[in-house]
Amino acid sequence: xxxxxxxxxxxxxxxxxxxxxxxxxxxxxxxxxxxxxxxxxxxxxxxxxxxxxxxxxxxxxxxxxxxxxxxxxxxxxxxxxxxxxxxxxxxxxxxxxxxxxxxxxxxxxxxxxxxxxxxxxxxxxxxxxxxxxxxxxxxxxxxxxxxxxxxxxxxxxxxxxxxxxxxxxxxxxxxxxxxxxxxxxxxxxxxxxxxxxxxxxxxxxxxxxxxxxxxxxxxxxxxxxxxxxxxxxxxxxxxxxxxxxxxxxxxxxxxxxxxxxxxxxxxxxxxxxxxxxxxxxxxxxxxxxxxxxx
Length: 294
Fold this sequence. Notes:
By secondary structure, the protein is mostly helical. The protein is built from 15 helices and three strands.
């Protein structure tokens, strides 16, 4: 059953052109908040929000990243839909999230991993993510006309933030994609799902990714997004500048791309340790051997 408040919030999100997944997530988070108190959010206030955040943190023990999603949904509800004139940073604070660096696969591990992906379709998708730095959602949404072999670019339409961009099309990837196209002859989507009118789902590729990781016996965690991380770090280690990588990845902020500098081992480890610059100690002067009387 849809309430007037839910309809109003949905309209507000559509007016602001929020991504469909974001809309679904926000509505689910607000629904959980309302069910916790058994009341409409319109009659709940700041103390109720504080109580709910404490519940998420201390009783449910959710990770900071999960709580941030709930905070964002409640901020949107009360700021945009209910038009509350609060100091939202103070009234609905967001927890600090740990700044963890992703684990990066070496080039050798990328080769080993991709070789263990049994399905040709999934292997081609993951290869595309690595070769062009695509998000998995962008890779599964590709269509044949997005591959521009004349200019050697791939057009990514409506990526994160609903932004279009162009990324590199390597000759090896073009050959791989042509082999896949001649084999599968896709009509609309380059990587169709069980129903030809729909593209393959992200979850299907994620499941195959975990199977391949187990076959490869690589101890590092591997997801489809690991291919995008490896793309960025390996380019940095080849000397490609951060600004170019930012454009290829489609990051809004250069600071987001710059964090990969902390993962590029050839950059980080190329500096000389001060231990190696210390002067070598002089060898001890040998003591004179006394002459023997006989």
